[in-house]
Amino acid sequence: MNAPDKLAQLLTLTREPFPASRKAWIEGSRPDLRVPVRDVSLTNGEVVSLYDTSGPYTDPAAAIDVRRGLPDVRTPWLDERADTEHYEGRARMALDDGAKHEDRDAQRIAALRAEAAGLQRTPRRAKPGANVTQMHYARRGIVTPEMEYVALRENGKREWMREYLADAGREQRLRGNPMGAAIPALITPEFVRDEVARGRAIIPANINHPEVEPMAIGRNFLVKINANIGNSAVTSSIEEEVEKLVWAIRWGADNVMDLSTGRNIHTTRDWIVRNSPVPIGTVPIYQALEKVGGVAEDLTWAIYRDTLIEQAEQGVDYFTIHAGLRLPFIHLTANRRTGIVSRGGSIMAKWCIAHHQESFLYTHFEEICEIMKAYDVSFSLGDGLRPGSGADANDEAQFAELRTLGELTQVAWKHDVQTMIEGPGHVPMHMIQANMDEQIKHCHEAPFYTLGPLTIDIAPGYDHIASAIGAAMIGWMGTAMLCYVTPKEHLGLPDREDVKQGIVAYKIAAHAANVAKGHPGVRARDEALSKARFEFRWTDQFNLGLDPDTARDFHDETLPKDSSKEAHFCSMCGPKFCSMKITQEVRDFAAKGMSEKSAEFKAAGGELYVPIRPVA
Amino acid sequence: MNAPDKLAQLLTLTREPFPASRKAWIEGSRPDLRVPVRDVSLTNGEVVSLYDTSGPYTDPAAAIDVRRGLPDVRTPWLDERADTEHYEGRARMALDDGAKHEDRDAQRIAALRAEAAGLQRTPRRAKPGANVTQMHYARRGIVTPEMEYVALRENGKREWMREYLADAGREQRLRGNPMGAAIPALITPEFVRDEVARGRAIIPANINHPEVEPMAIGRNFLVKINANIGNSAVTSSIEEEVEKLVWAIRWGADNVMDLSTGRNIHTTRDWIVRNSPVPIGTVPIYQALEKVGGVAEDLTWAIYRDTLIEQAEQGVDYFTIHAGLRLPFIHLTANRRTGIVSRGGSIMAKWCIAHHQESFLYTHFEEICEIMKAYDVSFSLGDGLRPGSGADANDEAQFAELRTLGELTQVAWKHDVQTMIEGPGHVPMHMIQANMDEQIKHCHEAPFYTLGPLTIDIAPGYDHIASAIGAAMIGWMGTAMLCYVTPKEHLGLPDREDVKQGIVAYKIAAHAANVAKGHPGVRARDEALSKARFEFRWTDQFNLGLDPDTARDFHDETLPKDSSKEAHFCSMCGPKFCSMKITQEVRDFAAKGMSEKSAEFKAAGGELYVPIRPVA
Q1: What is the pLDDT of residue A347?
Q2: Do A593 and B491 touch (CB under 8 A)?
Q3: Which residues bind [4Fe-4S] cluster (chains A, B) (predicted)?
Q4: Cα angle at A240 between A234 and A245, to 5 degrees?
C-alpha cells in the first residue's frame, strides 16, 4: 500500500472520534494547562467523561501533519524553568539506522527522511550542573505543571459520577481493598509531587518530548497499560509507522514502547516520538546491537553510552536497562526449564560470558544516571532473568536480579532519577503475591511494571487471556503499569487486530484492578453502563464500553434493525419474556407490599432470612 | 444448509482427531470400564496424555449415527444394581414441544422425529422404595463403577508426567496453595465415594443417561467448565442441534446445559441427550413456561412437576431449580442497579408477586427430592437473585438466597440427592473471596458452580475475558465448576465461534485454578509445552496447546514455510539473534565456571546476592 493510501486509512480509521464522543478539556491553573478527556453523550441527556489517551488524533478540530509532529505543549513549561539549554546535539551517523549502504531501501528511506525534515528539533539538555528530573523538582518542593496536569488527569471530571456513587450503603458494601496502597479521595498537585519525591510514582517526560501529555505511573494512581510496537521490515511510509502508535493509543495504551530493530530505527523513532502524546519507552541495547552487526560480544560501553545520548536527544521518555543481570547470577539459569527469555537479558548474558566480565550496564550505572538526569529520562530497570515459563517462576535467578534492581533504585534516587522496576513474565496465580511483596520490600515502593504475568503456559494463541488474569491480580496487588500481551505472543508478530485485542484485554485487567483497589469514582463508568443496560439503552451500553464498534456489531448480528436499539428486550430472552421487565413490577410490589412484608418478617422473628419450614 | 450438508460438516469439522492425537483408554477393574484419554505424540517420541471430554466423536474407529445415539456404556452397571425398573413412562403430549399446531415447522419436525425414532429409550426409574443416587450408594459404603471411572479419569496417565515433575527443588518452589481444599496425591475410588457421601462432590449421571462418561464436580477434583447451548429458532436437522454439543465438548466442555426455549424442545433434548457423552443440565422452568404460553402467572406445581418427570425420563443429569428465591427476598432487589437478571429467577419472582404466595419450588421442595432420587438427577440450586452488575454484588438479596440454598442442601442430603450450588454473576475482584467463604459456610461444602464472575461491567463484546479473570480466581478459591461466558454475553446469541472462544477462555481459567490449587500432575502439560517451546519444537508447542489450529495459523501468518516449524528461531527475534540460543552457552559456562564462580561467591561473603560496589 502506498503512502497516500496509508494516510487515508490513518485519517479514516484512527482519527474518527468514538461514537457520541467529543474531546473536552479540564482547565488547569494556567491557560496552557488543559487536560483532555473524552465526553460521551448518552441518549438520556447525561454526559459521561472518560480518561483519554488518544491525544489530538480524536479531535476533528486538530490539524495534524505527521511530517511536522504534534504541538509542543510543554515548551513554555520547560523554558520557564530556565535550567535547560539548546545545543547542536550529537552528530548523526549512518550507523544510527544500522544502515548498510548496499541497502536497497536506503534511497527510499533517505527520501522519507527528507520529507520529514520538519520533525527535527534542536535538542535540549540540562545546563551544566543542573538536574531536570521531575523527581529533583519534587524533592525541592516544586509543583511542576506536569504534576498539576497529572493530578487533574487522575481525578477526571467528578461531577457526573456523584449520582452514580450516591448510595451510601452500596458504597460501603463495595468499598475497595487497596492492598496497602494509600489512595486519597482527591489527587492534589501536592500529592503528586510527594509521590514523585519519594519515588513511589514517576512522570515519564523527557525534556526533548515536549509533545507529551503528562501521566503518572505509581501504586497510588490509576493502573496504566503499555503497548509495544515495532517498525516494519520494509517501511513504506511515515504514516504506516505512526499509525501503529495512533492505533494503540486510540484503544487506550497509556505508554508505548518502540521495540524497533533492524533498518531505519533512528528515523522511525523520530517519526514516532514527534507524533506521540504518550510517553515512549525503548530498549537501547537493541539499537546498540544493530550498531555492532548483531554480535553481542562486540558491544562496548562507548557504543551503548552514545546510543543513550542519541535516544535521549530524540525524546525517549524511559529506557529499559537490564543492569540487574549480573555475571554471578547467570549460572543460576542453567537448570531452568526455559533459561533466559528476555532478549535484552540474553544479549547481556552473552556479553558477560564472552568477556567473563561484570555487565557494563552495572559497572557504569552511575554514569548512566548522569545522562538520565540531564534529559529526565526515567529508568525502567529490566528483568533480564524473568521466568519464561511457570516452571521458572520466583526462582533464585529472578529474585537475585530483583534485589539488585532494588539496590540500583537507591543509586538512581541518589541522583534524583525517576525509576520503575520491570517484572515477570510467567507466574502461576498462587505465586503472584510473592512477586509484589518482594518488589515492594526490595525496591522501596518504586513503581512495578509487569509483563502479564501469564498464569499458565498451555494457551498459545490466547496468551492475552492467560496473562490478563495475572495482570488484573498483580495490578490489584499494587503493580502500577501492565505491559500488554497479544494473542500472537510466542507465535509471531502482532498485526493491527492483535494489538487491539491485547490492549482491550489489558484495559479490562487494569480497570478490574482499579475497581478492586477502590480508586475514587472509577466504578462510576460500570454503574452508568449497567444502568443503560438495565434500561435497554443499547446505544449507551455500546458507547460506554471499551470497544463500542464490536459491541454494536455483535448486537447487530442477532438483532440488526435499528429499531431494536430502543427495543425493551434482547435476543437472549426475546420480546415475549424479559427478566429485566420484571423489576418494575418488583418495585411496585415492594412499595405496596413493604409494610405487610415487614410485619411478616417480625412475625418470623425479625430475621431477613426465614428458616425452612418442614413440609408435611 | 440442508441436513446432508450439515452432516458432512459435522463429520469433517468435529469428528477429526486433534493433530498428532489418538484416543486411548485407561482400563479399569472390569472390561466394560474404560476411561478415554487423548494421547498426543510429540516429535521427540514422547507421548503426552490429556483429559478428554470429546467422547467417541474424536475416535475415527467409532461408528456414529446421531439417529441412533451413542452406546449405552452404563447399562450393565445399572442392571447389576438391580434397583431400577423399566416402565412405560409418561405419555408424550403435543405440549411438550410447546407445539402450536398451526406451526409451519410442525410437519418437518414430525418427520425428523420419525427419522430419530431410534433415539427413543424405555425409561428407567427406581423400584418402589429404592433410592438410586450415587450419594445413596456412597453413604452405604458402595463404590460404584461410576466412582471408579471418575477416579481413573481424574488421575489420568501419571507415567509421562514423572520426568517433568522430577525436580524436587522446583516442585517445592511451585507447590500449590489449595486454599482449604484437601487434594490427595492419588484419587482412589474410595476417596471419590467418600467425597460423594459427604456431599462435597457430585457425579451427575441420570439412570436414563447410560451414554454418559462419568465425571465429578467437587472442590477436591479438577475444576470443570460448563457450556450452554440452545436450539435453533427453526431447526433444519438433527445434525445441526447435535453438532453444537459435539463442538462444545471437542474444545473441552465437561458439562453442557441445554437452555433451549420455544419450539421442539422436547425433541431437541432427545437428540442431545442420546448423543451426549457429557452430563446434560437443563432449567425445567423454561419448558414449563413454554407449556403455559410464556405467562409466568399461569405456572402451576402440577405442570412443573410433570416437566421434571418428563425430563428425568429423557435422561437430563441435573436440573437448575431456583427454589431459594423466596417471596420475602424479592423486595430486597427493589433498589438494585440491575434488579433480577436471572431468567428463571425472574419467572419465579413474577409468579410469587402475581399470587402473593411463597414459591412453589420452595414449598414443594421435598416432593422434588422424591423425583430426583428416583432417577438420580442432581440439583443445581439456582441463584435467581445473582447480581447483574458489580453494583449489586454481595448484597442482602444475593446472600439471603444463598443461605436458603444452604438450608435446601440439607433437605436434599436428607434424601441422599446430589446437590451443587449456583453462584454469580458480576463480582469485583476484591469481593470474590467473600462469595466462596459464604458458600462454604452456609452450603456445607456442596460444590459451587459459578457464572464467571465478571469482574467489571464495561467490556461488552469481551465479557469472556472480563469473566475469565473472576472465574480463575474463584476456581482457585474452591469453586468446582465454572459456567462459561461468551463474547456475545449481554449482546446476542453466541454462534459457533463465540462458543469456542468462551470455552477456550474458560479452559484457561480452569487450568490456571488447577495449577494454583496444586492438583497433582496438572502442571506437567505446561512443563511439556514449555520444554517444546524452548527446544523450538514448534509443532509440539502447537499440539500441546488448548487450540492447536489457531496456534499453528498464527505462527504461519509470520513464518509460513514448513521448514520454519523446525527452525531454531522465531519471528520475534529472527534468525540472526535468539535469546533462547544463549542458554546452551550459559550451561557450558555454568558447568565450566561453577568452581571459580563459587570461589567468587565465597570471597563475596557467600551471599548469592552481591551488594553493589560504589563506582569511583
Answers
A1: 93
A2: no
A3: 570, 573, 578
A4: 120
Contacts with A, B 259-318, CB within 8 Å: 261, 289, 294, 296
Task: Say if residues A250 and A58 touch (Cβ distance below 8 Å).
Answer: yes
**Interface size between A and B, measured as CB pairs under 8 A:** 438
Calculate the alpha carbon distances from B516 to A296, A430, B56, B176, B478 in Å: 38, 5, 31, 5, 11
Q: Which residues contact B416 (CB under 8 A, 6 or more apart)?
A: B131, B133, B135, B136, B139, B373
Chain A contact set for B610 (CB, 8 A):
326, 328
A540-552 average pLDDT score: 97
Which residue carries 495504551 as its cell? A253
Residue type, B441: K
Q: Which residues contact B556 (CB under 8 A, 6 or more apart)?
A: none
Alpha-carbon torsion, ordered A356, A362, A366, A372, to 10 deg: 120
B509 vs B108: which has the higher pLDDT: B509
> Residue with C-alpha cell 555492532?
A292
Q: Cα distance from B112 to chain A (closest Cα, Å)? A: 26
Q: Do A550 and B518 touch (CB under 8 A)?
A: no
Lowest mean pLDDT of A564-578, B28-42, B253-267, name the range: A564-578
Instruction: Specify the residue for cell string 481444599.
Output: B181
Q: What's the pLDDT score for residue B7? A: 55
Which whole number is the average pLDDT over B69-98?
A: 93
- Extract the annotated binding site of A for substrate: 228, 257, 286, 322, 342-344, 383-386, 422, 449
Separation of alpha carbons A270 and A261, rounded Å:
14
Are B460 and A396 in contact (CB < 8 Å)?
Answer: no
What would the DSSP string read from start to end of A502-570?
HHHHHHHHHHHHHHHHT-TTTTHHHHHHHHHHHTT-HHHHHHHSS-HHHHHHHHHHH---GGGGS-SS-
Are the beta carbons of B430 and A461 separated by less than 8 Å? no
Please tell me the least confidently modeled range out of A188-197, A198-207, B113-122, B256-265.
B113-122
Q: Which pLDDT belongs to residue B92?
A: 84
A271-300 b/e (C-beta count within 10 Å ≥ 16 → b) = bbbbbbbbbbbbbbbbbbbbbbeeebeebe
Distance CA A574, CA B315 (A): 28
Span A506-532, pLDDT tens digits:
999 999 999 999 999 999 999 999 999
As a whole number of angstroms, the distance between CA A55 and CA A278 comes to 8
Mean pLDDT, all residues of chain B? 90
Provide the CB-side half-sphere exposure for A114 (13 A, CA). Answer: 6
Is the Cβ–Cβ distance between B39 and B49 less than 8 Å?
A: yes
Q: Are B544 and B40 in contact (CB under 8 A)?
A: yes
Measure the CA dihedral B56/B59/B64/B70, to 10°: -10
pLDDT digits (tens, 9 = 90+) for A135-184: 999 999 999 999 999 999 999 999 999 999 999 999 999 999 999 999 99
pTM as predicted? 0.94
Grid cell listed for A571 = 435476543
Residue B230's SS3 state is coil
Tell me the mean pLDDT in the region A559-578: 60
DSSP B394-420: T-HHHHHHHHHHHHHHHHHHHTT--EE
Do A349 and B590 make contact, defined as CB atoms within 8 angstroms? no
Q: Give the pLDDT score at A114.
A: 79
| B327 closest CA partner among A273, A307, A596 | A596
**Grid coordinates belonging to A332:** 543460576
The owner of cell 463465540 is B498
B466 φ/ψ angles, rounded to the nearest 5 degrees: -55, -30
